[in-house]
Amino acid sequence: MMIYLDYAATSKKREYLIREIIENFDRFNGNPDSIHGYGREAKKILEESRDLIAKSIGASSKEIIFTSGASESNNTIIHNFANKGFIVTTKIEHPSILEPLREWAKQVVLIDADEDGLINLEKFSNAINDDTKLVSIILANNETGAIQPISQIRKIIGDRKIWLHLDAVQAYGHIDLDVEALGCDSMSLSGHKIGGLNGFGILYLRKRVDNLIFGGNQEKTRRAGTSFLMGAYTMAKSYNYMVDEREKIEGLKAYFIEQLNENRINYEINGNLGNQIGHILNIYFPFTKSKFLLTYLDMNGICVSAGSACTAGSLEPSHVIENMYDSQRAESSIRFSFGFENTKDEIDKVVYNLYQIQERMKNER
Asked: Which of 54, 58, 205, 290 has the fewest C-beta atoms under 10 angstroms from its C-beta?
């Protein structure tokens, strides 16, 4: 049986929701934009899901646009502001922010993060001016879990007409989100991070922006494409489960750290443990390289990662850890991310394997 500790890449799916869909399959057969009975039933499910998702972030349902995922949502915002003025963001953003900036935008300011994984607020303040049109911030980092000080960022922006976009993918379900309290103009979320189906996400929009996908009149003409009904349903239903699971998941993270200490594993936590999301833990292991450790753990049935799943396959060092520390540390760092199906017995097995590889490396010196 494999041990899955890569929930930040994608959560395990909630089988009980899939079974629920199968048991009521006729309800999900129609196109929500069709006017017949099947279509009306599908539309009912779609809009109920929209209402639940909107409520979960303190938004109005009319401010919620269904997309194919957070990458599309992020790209939509970057595309809208690419040639309107300066864009300010950080060097530790998700690739779905950094890559479209490289492709489309010419006036970009990238702010460094400190060793806690937090944006340098002084540099951020100095970067903001009358030509700044967009600030895009990852609320909880996908590799370290660092939670950015959005209230201070919002305060620095002040009354300037600057659009604030938040990538809140890793935060959703793990901390309470309220778009009014955050003061953001847009927010991206993804269903598959909390147990919903892959290929579905949302873009919260306080005000309308230009479409990235044209075609039909779906989403009140804001985003074309036949609605992914099962994606919407599983994301909406997963949220409350995720909220109920927070304490357990946070406890597993704490237990993992306890066991590392008890077994005298040589490690350092990347970032500040006191300001991290509850399910992500990025660790520097000075006794080995992450490429070797990933292979060893995988051979022993343990699934973890060294960085964003969107750059997986290349096994390149994390650009986030490189920016916070240096390339040497990035080459020996691993991300563990916990979820609703993990157990303490699994944690014990992972720590045992880490101890074994540490002892092996000692003996080979």
From this structure: 58
